[in-house]
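User: Second chain of the day. Same drill as before.
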Amino acid sequence: MDKDVAAQSPWVNELSVLAHRGRDLAPLFAQLQPALHQGTHGLAVVVAQARDLVAPAGDTDDMLDGALLAAQVREIEGDWLGAADALVQLMPELRQRGRPERLAVALTVLGDAQIQLGRFVYASAYLREAMVLAREHGLDRERGAALFTAGLLHVHLAQLDTTRAAYQEALSLMGPTVPAGWRVRVAANLGYCALLARQPAQAERELQQGLAEPDVECWPLAHAALWCNLAWARAALGQASPARQAWQRARALQRRHGLRRLQAALALNHGRVLAVEGRHRQAIRLAELARRRLDREGRPIYREEALAFLAEQAAALGLWSSAARLSSELAERRREAGARVLDDLAEGIDSVLMHAREHADQRDRESRHAALDRRVAEATRALDESESRVRWLAERDSVTLLANRRALEHALPQRLQTVSRLLVLSLCLAQLQELAAVIGSGGVDGVLRQVGRWLLDRMGEGSVFVHRDGQFVLCSDDARALDDPAAWAEALCAGVQALPSGTGTPLAVAVGWSLFPADGLQSDQLLQQAELASAGALPAGGRRLRAYHPRLREEQLARTRTEADLRRALRSGELRAWQQPQVALTADGPRVGVEALVRWQHPQRGLLGPAEFIQVAEDSGLVIDIDRWMLAQSLAWAAEARRRGAELPVAVNLSARTWGAAGFVPTLQRLLAETGVPPSLLELELTEASLLEAQGPALDGLRAARALGVRIALDDFGTGYSSLAYLRSLPVDVLKIDRSFVQRLPEDRPSEAIVALLVGLAQALSLDLVAEGVEHPRQAACLAGLGVPRGQGFLWGRPAAWAG
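Assistant: Same format as last time:
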């Protein structure tokens, strides 16, 4: 946050003094509207003009005008609590003076302040009263301004089309009296609305349109907001450099014009830029600063944005407990906000009644009864509609608009009371983080919406719920589902995987289910069982169907213990780096390289091979840390071998998650530079199954490593589905023949034919070839006869600790 603009603006206090000494401050209102959107420099002009109007004494109207000016300055400077309090205190006197144009302005500014403070019910009531008042007195400009401000309600509900329609109507009401610069504000608000709706590409178009307005530079506040939100949009699209340039433009405008109200937004969007650059820890620090400022300003809507961003960054760093805590805090705040809005509805009705009656008391009571009744009826009807809308939104998922977890917690117990049997099914879309890296978060939201629509069409309302991102819960008492859950789930999986994913690879889908009353009688118990059955990692395009069984809970507990132990192992140095030699398939079989293998010296369970913990590492993300540790150990060994005169290549197998992890390539460059090992002596392996999972950043990491001169090896070759297609497009140097083909040699003719085919393929593509799992001399002889140059297996040595 900037210390140079953190001090309280002087204009509020000075206007308050002038209000008690001035005369005829009314002309300032015509000049205030443009000045309010030019930052503190524009406000200084207004105050300077107010000084020229100072007289020895002023009347009540002058004091009210000055007080209203001061409240508007507070509002534009970001002191929404102060502005709201000042305006509420002014309301009784404004109503008594009978000046509808001033009252309409005050109600509009008060509505804007209430929106910023998250008090949507009160904001709706004030803005509706301003519009009714302006219509009754033919004040089209004030009516348009109130409708324009009401558009902010739709902005914060992420209703882009409704917001656009509200702004068009507001501008048409004003006609030729539209204040200069308001079209710039429209573009800024529409861009922000698109960002809340998770449509960054649309947001970028709206914001660019605003920046193209000819007078945009005359309105620094809206101008800076356009650049600030453009940085967010470009960060959401993964455009790191353009996002930073946009943020820097916004920052320069904020500093130049002293725009205090943009400080929190600039900090939060700077965090978004840092996140897309991979600097997640710095992003978290800035988001924390933004959240603290928003807490002080009492702005719950923007504070929730900061919380959501903090949760995302904690997850990106693998801080799962922090991410869960922040997500829970965000969900709790949203529930509290929804409950608070509902509690305020009754007070809102009373407030509107009081305002209407006070206004009616200024005129002939008998002639105003009918208008009063109409306004009361309108306010009551509007608030009833707001209550219904709030209740509906409280039980809807923000992305798919399907019934959410809160609705499920209410509906499932009631459903269990009306049926004799029920299938509770959890359908999880796996690999969403990897998918987002390819098609963006907006693309993932589109995938979730289409899956939700497909499930809703198949199941009907009341049977499909969104439990959390990527997880749908289905409830069915259909006889076909109950009699054969596996077949029914298989059909669901097939339907979901037939939907377009945006990558050409089917969606990864895991389905688990439990049955009432066979597996349990309580709704939360059945739901936990279905979730447990669907849990676990999947490769891209994979599918898993599983019914609940009590042993799954034991397996889950074991995985949890293993994950906790593995985290401790990384901290306390329990991992071990082993090696297995690779040899030339000649008579004497000289060693031509080694493959690095990870082992875990568990304090209670002894020495563990990767089969006992690597899947848990994959699921938890710890595999990235393990791979980086193995890479460092392997290069240190290669450097030591070189000092002893041996130029032996070392092969390290990496997970697909590691290839796509933030900072992978810089880490690789740093380790090569520190150890002095030539890149050509490092061979990085990935399995064919991992290659099928690799998308977006993982493939970028693969190509970047190859560009450094590192050799790329494809492990377990021949066991996947699309090897030949990938060989044409990816920079692979080495193929490793899977042990399943080697074990049957030389007796099995089909295996021999496959190996011969692979030798021909490798020679045609100028690729090196290594046979894995060689255990007998006759296998080595057969492979040598077929033309395989290198081998690896127990024949030449079992895995052992590093040797010189």
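The chain has a mean pLDDT of 76.

User: Great, on to the next one.
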